[in-house]
């Protein structure tokens, strides 16, 4: 599938790419934006979390790259996307509620650096978004998954603020976590995502960069809508 097929090109609607590190509010604003536009919401990070869940379920260690690669052909992965919610099924089981545990989150960052995993998931992501009318969020949407996306955003925020958001999210979900460890996990993931040799976390040259440190989600969405309106 060529780059021209990965943007609107007269299809039903735009492909909107939202990238950035953890804790910048990608998921929140992507859901709100998809709801405002009546678009599908594609959480690509959930796909990497699903692979991480399968690795944990299989009892594999992160360093067993060859065994993880061998697991992929025997894995069925399905995602049901709506304007607000995403449900992920692995081997027919809905694991959506298990995707944001600390263990899965930590392993997802490591698994995402394995080139064979990224190659395996790339067509899955592109198939979901190929028809357009999709808000896709992740870490390489505008650079790798949909390089010709119609509109691209890259969200950033102060590390302390991002760690606080992540900590509150985990506590609200019932996880027993410490803030200092949450911050170490987040900054460690930042380093891995930015330094991986395959599709590192970097802004696309044509992405609009937004600092969300002091912006509520609604304000971010309003800014995005002003940019998107010019494309509709």
Description:
With 232 residues, the chain is of the alpha/beta class. It has a single domain, classed as Rossmann fold, CATH 3.40.50.300. The chain is built from 9 helices and 8 strands. The protein has helices at residues 26-37, 44-57, 65-71, 102-111, 115-129, 141-145, 159-172, 179-195, 217-229, and strands at residues 15-19, 40-43, 77-81, 86-90, 93-94, 134-138, 151-156, 208-211. A 5-stranded parallel sheet has the order 2-6-1-7-8, sandwiched between helices. A 3-stranded antiparallel sheet has the order 3-4-5, covered by helices on one side. Helix 2 (44-57) crosses helix 4 (102-111), helix 2 crosses helix 5 (115-129) and helix 7 crosses helix 8 (179-195).
Structure annotation, total helices: 9
CA distance, first residue to last residue? 24 Å
Q: Give, in order, the helices and strands.
A: EHEHHEEEHHEHEHHEH
Q: What is the correct CATH architecture?
A: 3-Layer(aba) Sandwich
Radius of gyration: 17 Å
| Lateral strand order in the biggest sheet | 2-6-1-7-8
Summarize the amount of helix as a percent range. 40-55%
Q: What name goes with the CATH superfamily?
A: P-loop containing nucleotide triphosphate hydrolases
SS-based class: alpha/beta
Unreliable segments of 5+ consecutive residues: 1-10
Number of domains: 1
CATH topology: Rossmann fold
Strand content: 15-25%
């Amino acid at each position: 599938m060529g780059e021209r097929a990965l943007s609107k090109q007269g299809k039903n609607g735009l492909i909107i790419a939202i990238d950035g590190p953890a804790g910048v509010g990608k998921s929140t604003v992507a859901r709100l934006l998809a709801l405002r536009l009546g678009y599908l919401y594609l959480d690509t990070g959930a796909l990497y979390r699903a692979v991480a869940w399968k690795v944990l379920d299989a009892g594999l260690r992160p360093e067993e790259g060859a065994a993880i690669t061998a697991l992929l052909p025997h894995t069925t992965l399905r995602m049901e996307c709506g304007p607000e919610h995403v449900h992920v099924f692995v081997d027919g089981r809905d694991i959506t509620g298990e995707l944001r545990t600390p263990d899965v989150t930590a392993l997802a960052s490591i698994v995402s650096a394995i080139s064979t995993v990224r190659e395996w998931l790339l067509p899955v992501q592109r198939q979901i978004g190929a028809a357009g009318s999709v808000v896709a969020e992740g870490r390489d949407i505008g650079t790798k998954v949909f390089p010709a996306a119609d509109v691209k955003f890259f969200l950033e925020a102060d590390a302390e603020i991002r760690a606080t958001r992540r900590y509150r999210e985990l506590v609200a979900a019932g996880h027993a976590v410490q803030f200092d460890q949450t911050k170490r996990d987040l900054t460690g993931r930042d380093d891995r995502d930015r330094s991986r040799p395959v599709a590192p976390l970097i802004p696309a040259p044509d992405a609009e960069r937004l600092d969300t440190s002091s912006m509520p989600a609604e304000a971010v969405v309003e800014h995005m809508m002003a940019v998107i309106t010019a494309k509709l």
